[in-house]
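Entry 14: structure prediction run for LD-carboxypeptidase. Input pasted below.
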Amino acid sequence: MITYPHLKNGATIGVTAPSSGVPVELHKLVKLASTRLEQNGFRVVCGDTVWTQEKAKSAPAVKRAAEFNEMMANHEVDIIIPPWGGELLIEILEHIDFKNMKNKWVLGDSDLSALLLAITLRTGIATAHGTNLVDLRGECSDETTAMWQKVLSCKPGESVLQKSSDYYQKEWQHDNPSPCVYHLTETTRWKTVSNRNVKIQGRLLGGCIDIIRHLIGTPFGDVQSFRNTFLDGGPIIWYLENCEMNTTDLRRSLVQMKLAGWFDRCSGLMFGRSSANTPVDNYTVEDVYHKLADELGIPIIYDIDCGHVPPQITFINGAYAEVKASEGKGSVLQYFQP
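Run finished. Output tokens:
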């Protein structure tokens, strides 16, 4: 049984940095995002870890975990949104208080995927993979990014539909800021390995494959136990995105996931757009996808709105979903069912 938090009007957002903090020269991004959210009726509370960054992390692991645990336990904090991802979130997992985890949203992406997935696998509490805090600093948000609020406001028993974006961002233009943060210039096109229309159904799990692969074999990556305890053995749809890996590293990671049983009873896979996926010896990412589809005998959709090439659909770990891909377009209908 999956438990779903609910985002209420006027919610208090707790901002903590369980992975990377924000260096001094970029503090303005957090302050601007906080101001925008407050203008939209939220209250924003920032922890100490947000403002520091040294040696690839915001603070020592124990301090990062303690601040997260405090915000999770604080009844005045309704949702936790870190400023962004980073590199070393995995260090804090052994210090997280999963036994006393409160039913509140945690929203983020990238390195934060490890925390999101671990929470859902260990507790059955749904978590949200989507925008991070600093990308909410714009005068406006594109339609895809802006859906985070509607999705997290969905009540248990309800459903919410998201559609593929019209355009995505090819590269950042920090010297040419956009009112909506992103420069959406390239036509979005969802693709399928079969080159046919695809429809898949199941419970969503996923995140950044660069980091969640490291949960395999740990107490924080027991997919089999999660499936038996919270899903009664039902099918899973994995959504994955590659931040930095070349194609052979991606292939190794997917084989590891397969051998670890993560793809048992998997009804389909989705892969986000990526600026990585560098071919090795003419071994392309399409080769990786085709091989995996053949091995597992399931449909694969790729170049979806997920990951480090924005914008992003808000995916809910644990939610039941119906995903469709047809003629370059896609949709994700998520049901907040137990």
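Notes: The longest strand covers residues 198-208. Will compare against the previous run tomorrow.
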